[in-house]
Amino acid sequence: MSDGAGKEIEQLIALMAKLPGLGPRSARRAVLTMIKKRRLLLDPLAQAMTEVAATARECVECGNIGTSDLCDICTSPKRDQTILCIVEDVSDLWAMERAQVFSGRYHVLGGVLSALDGIGPDELKLPKLETRVAQGQIKEAILALGATVDGQTTAHYLADRLEPLGITVTTLAQGVPVGGELDYLDDGTISAALRARKSL
Amino acid sequence: MIQWEGEGIVLSVRPHGESSAIVQVFTEAQGRHAGVVRGGASRKMTPVLQPGAQVAVEWQARLEDHIGSFRVEPVRSRAGLLSDRAGLAGLTAICGLLRECLPEREAHGALYRRTGVLLDAMVAGHRWDAAYVLWELDLLGELGFGLDLSRCAVTGQTQELAYVSPKSGRAVSRGGAGEWADRLLPNPAFLGLRDLEPPPDQLRDGLSLTGHFIRQWLVPAFGRAGLADERDRLAAVLTRQVGSGASSTGASG
């Protein structure tokens, strides 16, 4: 349905409405705000999007998204090259980086094994991972995959593939989240937390 | 408005739109049944809607042939299996076989009850490898591909049924096999006795036997490439455990 705006604006609204978290109504509101704040929002956004469209690419080493063939993490000399954190998706890598608690390098798998979605080992970036491990610098691989059936199936599969290469394979702990109260936790999380208990 | 309620086992969850999910559950009275769960992709519902979880569901739709919507409440999580290599492989194989092979909206009450007992045994850490093979045997039977292990296909005798024909799925006695013995599949005794603690060689033979008929009969009948992959992964894990002498499949890492 036409809003009475021009064809180009309608097209922008239609494209914005395809973004996660936005629908036609919120896309229309966002576009209207950008147009009203043209110098503050629309022009810089258009320029930033043009630049990103021209330069964004996948890191050939880890699969992170950056603006050059090797991402900033892979080229940083401050990063520990002996620890590799394996994540499902770039968004997981970015979440780890936001926490600022990991100083090693990453490998983005590009998904997890899922028979339902037809994702088998061939669809994941496993050959590159094995090549990186086989180069000999990596001593530990941390499997930072989701605590879901598919995520943990992938974790066990990777452990089977990586352990024979002579490295330590670890996985993230599962249990009570920071700020979590036992009363509100599902019984699966409580059970995982109890099994992973440690002495104080 | 048509509706029913009951308890079921989650078989699969697929995102639907931004926040909903299409969920398949296996219930005692309705069999394998799908429905939309509003908010099923939310952070609150994701732990509840994991394959293998026991849930209370209320389904409703305007017409019988609509996919309808589920209201889901957690009953029992089986997330304890996530850290158990063999248990997780077993859970995935069970949910995969039920999801791909069971006809939709057709009750299989006995199979449902056996599935629940098997999954609970896995979570409790009891030995479940032989129970799994017997479950596959029951699944083949429920789907119309049952093996006849009661009498020899050649002689009709009911003793010394040492083999199974890989073509017909019927038992063959040692005497009836004659020179064809090396072309037949071993028939481990625990299948007939429904023994839950067989020796390792019998367990291996049992896994090979049911695996053969899943590949020969179920995969062509239900036609999805990769149907047997999850099951093969489980067989590999169990065979490795049997080989290493670890008989308990409930507490492996």
Automatic annotation (TrEMBL), chain A:
Q: Which GO terms fall under molecular function for this chain's record?
A: DNA binding; zinc ion binding
Cite the entry's keywords alphabetically.
DNA damage, DNA recombination, DNA repair, Metal-binding, Zinc, Zinc-finger
Q: Which PROSITE patterns match?
A: TOPRIM
Q: What is the organism field in this record? A: Rubricella aquisinus
The organism's lineage is: Bacteria, Pseudomonadati, Pseudomonadota, Alphaproteobacteria, Rhodobacterales
InterPro entries named among the record's database cross-references: DNA_Rcmb_RecR, Rcmb_RecR, Rcmb_RecR_Znf, TOPRIM_dom, TOPRIM_RecR
Q: Name one GO biological process term.
A: DNA repair
- Where in the chain are the C4-type zinc fingers? 59-74
Q: Which family does it belong to?
A: Belongs to the RecR family.
Q: Where is the Toprim domain?
A: 82-177
Q: What is this protein called?
A: Recombination protein RecR
Protein role:
May play a role in DNA repair. It seems to be involved in an RecBC-independent recombinational process of DNA repair. It may act with RecF and RecO.
Spell out the CDD domains in the cross-references: TOPRIM_recR (cd01025)
UniProtKB/TrEMBL annotation, chain B:
Q: Supply the NCBIfam families for this chain.
A: reco
- InterPro entries with a match to the protein in the record: ARFGAP/RecO, DNA_rep/recomb_RecO_N, NA-bd_OB-fold, RecO, RecO_C
Keywords, comma-separated and alphabetical: DNA damage, DNA recombination, DNA repair
**Which Gene3D superfamilies does its entry note?**
Nucleic acid-binding proteins, Recombination protein O, C-terminal domain
Q: What name is this protein filed under?
A: DNA repair protein RecO
Q: Might you report a single GO cellular component term?
A: bacterial nucleoid
- Boundaries of each DNA replication/recombination mediator RecO N-terminal domain copy? 1-77
Name one process (GO BP) from the record: DNA recombination
Q: Which residues form a coiled coil?
A: none
Query: One Pfam family from the UniProt entry?
Result: RecO_C
Regarding protein family, the annotation reads:
Belongs to the RecO family.
**What does the protein in this record do?**
Involved in DNA repair and RecF pathway recombination.
